[in-house]
Amino acid sequence: MMKVPITREGYENLKKEHEYLLNVKRPQILNLIEEAREHGDLSENAEYDAAKEAFQFLQKKVSEIEEMIKNSEIVDTKTMSGDAVAFGCSVTLTNLDTDEEVIYRVVGPYESDVKKGTISITSPLGRALMGKTVGDEVNFKAPGGDRMYEVVKII
Questions:
Q1: Angle between helix 46-71 and helix 26-37 axes, rounded to 10 deg
Q2: Range of 53's domain?
Q3: Cβ burial 94-132 (10 Å sphere, 16+ → b, else e)
Q4: Residue 29: exposed, middle, or buried by beta-carbon count in 10 A (0-12, 13-18, 19+)?
Q5: Whole-number Cα distances in Å, 142 to 20, 53, 96, 123, 148
Q6: Minimal CA–CA distance to 82: which of 71, 74, 90, 93?
Q7: 121 in Cβ contact with 132 (< 8 Å)
Q8: Low-confidence ranges of the chain (pLDDT < 70)
């Protein structure tokens, strides 16, 4: 399996979420299951069914995070020059159609969240940005159609 790039910060966040789920959420849900069991007949116990379902959901989430951690490769972003867009850098872009300015940090797919200002290196925009320098135009196909940006600043 190919390793998935991730920043040190993103990797640490995955580990923190994993620890939280195992050490906080799991005991809470197990307590709910125990309490529901004490109410008697399990065949008609909605609290028990809900707690079991929550536990199954939690187990699935824990497994997903463990798989992400296993498949991650931390990329050292401190060695980047900042002259061109690369993994881990932040880039300020101007939309050439609307003159709207946006700032994104280019990260791995496990940590990308457009609402938080991070985009995946594997997204159409992320791929189009790689290697671009200040002043370069970036054209790419987005789900909503073709987009054009200009690279204004690289941090």
A1: 160
A2: 4-74
A3: beeeeeeeeebbbbbbbbbeeeeebbbbebebbebbeeb
A4: buried
A5: 35, 37, 15, 9, 10
A6: 90
A7: no
A8: 1, 42, 79-81
Query: Could you give the CA distance from residue 63 to residue 100 in angstroms, rounded to a whole number?
Result: 40
The whole-model pTM stands at 0.83
**Pair (84, 42) in one structural domain:** no
- What CATH number did the domain enclosing 97 receive? 3.10.50.30
Question: What is the structure's pLDDT at 110?
Answer: 95
Strand partners for 91:
104, 154
3-state class (DSSP) for residue 153: strand
Domain count within the chain? 2
Both structure tokens of 32 = 């709910």
DSSP assignment letter at 37:
H
Q: Which two tokens stand for residue 66?
A: 């463990």
Asked if 94 and 149 count as a contact pair (C-beta separation under 8 A), the reply is: yes
Strands 4-6 and 72-74: parallel
CA–CA separation, 6 vs 8, rounded Å? 7
Cβ(64)–Cβ(93) under 8 Å? no
